[in-house]
Amino acid sequence: MDRRKFLSAGTVGAAATALASPAIAQDVRQWKMVTAWPKNLPGPGVAAQMLADRITTLSGGRIEVKLFASGELVPGPGVFDAVSEGTAELYHAVPAYWGSKSKGILLFGSQPFGLRADEQFGWLYHGGGQELYNEMYGRFGIQPFLCGNSGPQWGGWFRDEINSVEDLKGMKFRTTGLASEMCRKLGMAAEAMSGPAMFQALQTGALDAGEFIGPWTDSALGYQQVAKNYYWPGVGEPSSAEECGVNASVFAELPEDLKQVVRFACESLYNPVWTEYTTKHALALKKLVDEDGVQVRVFPQDVIDAMGAASAEVIEELRSDEDELVQRITESFIAYRDSVGGYMTFADNGQMNARASVMGY
Question: Which of the residues 27, 35, 273, 353 has the least number of beta carbons within 10 Å of its own beta carbon?
């Protein structure tokens, strides 16, 4: 896909009687969705439009959602505040962008050496995470819902090969969320910026390396043109949940059936979005290697070990955060991670290891 295509910038049916038309029209809510993404960016931009369309369709046109991409109504980093303040009714973004509000928020999106996509959904829906998610975002007048996941993210695009953990010191690296905290502990200069801005920074040398999402989205943004070393595993974000935030007052005023529409629209997209990422990442990676000359490289073990030690420090700091709610969120996350992680040794990990021993993948 040409990266320039997305970097450039409900009709109600005829009523049976004249008396019915005004009643139907009065029941239509017109919502503005602001997003953190360029319009139709493969991955999150596509998922945002899917959510807008699904809410409109499932509501029978009673909620008409119009999507405004990053920069069209507000800048991408401003979507949280726009919904909190009522400038827009809802947004599509990721929790990893809101660490300045509270570091506790970051656990709802991704965690270094943390939860996979299915485990993240499990924590919120079956492990008490949603109640904590609601409590934290309620401070800002937002009702949050998970609505997708990128699956395992990649370690990043590096201009130069990495041979040891020493090579990371002083490196200017784009990342977000708790992965930023992990990287800083390794002596890296972690910088947050948009996906398109990362391309520019890699091209000019303002960045030495950076990670965004994975092969499907990354290749659309053109990173393979400016950095050829593509590293795995992306232990900084074993998954990255996408979220929908709805203005809490607007949500509270909905009739119960429309509240359920919004909830179900988000919940029902989680698996389709995640599996689309997985399917298209696989296809895009093959093209990157076969046609674009990308070198797929694995991080040396000392790098992974150092990242593991740094991430453990990050989680321990959250456990002792001065905010009691952040402490509760962290303890809930740890309890779920450890419980499900122990089971996965026998379940998914066992199956994947067995398949690899026979099939080679």
Answer: 353
